[in-house]
Amino acid sequence: MSSFLRPAIEGQDQRASESQYRFVSSHLAIAPPVSVVIPAMNEAENLPYVFKTLPAWIHEVILVDGNSTDDTVRVARDLWPGIKVVKQRGRGKGDALISGFAACTGDIIVMVDADGSADGHEIVSYVSALVSGADFAKGSRFANGGGTDDMTPVRKLGNRVLCAVVNAKFGARYTDLCYGYNAFWRHCLDKIDLDCTGFEVETLMNIRVVKAGLRVQEIPSHEYVRIHGMSNLSAVRDGLRVLRVILKEQGKRRTGRRRPPAFAPGAARGEVS
Q1: What is the maximum alpha-carbon separation in the chain?
Q2: Which helix (H) or strand (E) holds 272?
Q3: What's the pLDDT tens digit per position in 224-255?
Q4: Which intervals of the chain are annotated as region Disordered (predicted)?
Q5: What is this structure's pTM?
Q6: Which residue intervals of the chain are DSSP H helices?
Q7: Burial of residue 208 (number of CB atoms within 10 Å: 0-12, 13-18, 19+)
Q8: Is residue 18 a contact partner of residue 56, using CB atoms and an 8 Å limit?
């Protein structure tokens, strides 16, 4: 059994261990602190659905506020006392995530969208994959056990084509490419050096973890329909941005020594205030 993932011993003095272990259940405890990063802009109506699924054992939640004009920040603070709010100074999802990652103090970082499409109960599967040896736990809607309720046929086709291009050009074995529910050890940030401000940041991460030789494990994940509001995604515009990232990365040297592929698709069922 992993040194990071241990069963809780019945009768053990919990108070003596709380500083080292976070109890997931009466049978399971983890040692690494987990930070959850949620980029949000005008998502006040969706945040209750997001926060109600987040596990209580999370070390910290970081909300990156993209200059919301609604009650996003107030609602977040009401729902999760002690939440860390980062005021985004730039624009775009990539910029928001980079700002949130910089504010994290946990050893493990989890990316969660604020539109209610992600189920926080799945976080334990991501963390389990990481403490079992993976460097990067990548959510997949198309791995065995995953699914999506919020993807048009055009977007699904585009994702499949772009995913095939990345697999062919970088030696990956992804089943999903453009999905924002991922988790990784914080030290991975030093190896992937994110420098992208838009939606295509997810593709950039997926490419650079492969180029850096990091161990990737896909986690089956179910994407739900956005609950309130309209998505800013555009299949054609964002697809072209993703393609440009792929072509640009193809021309760059690898950032680390390449290991043999270590994919396991579907194996694991700013300003701070």
Answers
A1: 58
A2: strand 271-272
A3: 988 876 666 656 677 788 889 999 998 776 54
A4: 251-273
A5: 0.84
A6: 14-17, 47-51, 72-79, 93-102, 123-131, 153-170, 189-192, 201-211, 235-250
A7: buried
A8: no
